User: What shape does this take?
Amino acid sequence: MIDRLRALANRPIRAEDRGKAFLLASLAVVAALLALLSLGRPEPKPREARPVSGPPTPTSPAEQPPPQESTPAPEQRGASPAELKQARRVANRFFRSYLAYSYGRASLADLEAASPELRRELAARPARVPATVRKLKPRILTTQLEAEGGIAELDAVALVDDGDRTYSSVAGLERAGSSWQVSELGG
Assistant: This one.
């Protein structure tokens, strides 16, 4: 009996089972990451400041507005369910439009929720999509959010299945006024 189980465990994975095995392994990794996040580990170091388009911020202490004591800074408070729901919607909109772009079905102008900097980066390296990839039909299986330096920045991880393979795609989200935008790919 043990020899039979060993032979079953050591057999090669069939081509039709590879997608399922990858999906299960990816879900196990996401579950492990979520478990680690819930263990109460120390707050991660905030990312380096990146330039964000918008109104200039005052630099001298005399020009700075007085701090508001009633509302904690976004980095000091947890994300509300409404904020996470909004961020997930923005991430899904971005991933849907980015998948259409990266599979040759849309132009860069159709990309939703991307920062101007990210658009410039993608324009500098346009997607070259082979005909075999254009035929595939990507779909998002699930999207997970992970806090980076508080609620001001989030990483979104999408599990994507295109009919040929299943893989994850990572996008960095940051606040853009009262909403979110994707500022980087690959986390």
Q: What stands out?
A: Residues 79-185 form a domain with the Nuclear Transport Factor 2; Chain: A, fold (CATH 3.10.450). Confidence is low (pLDDT under 50) at residues 49-76. The two ends are 46 Å apart (CA to CA).
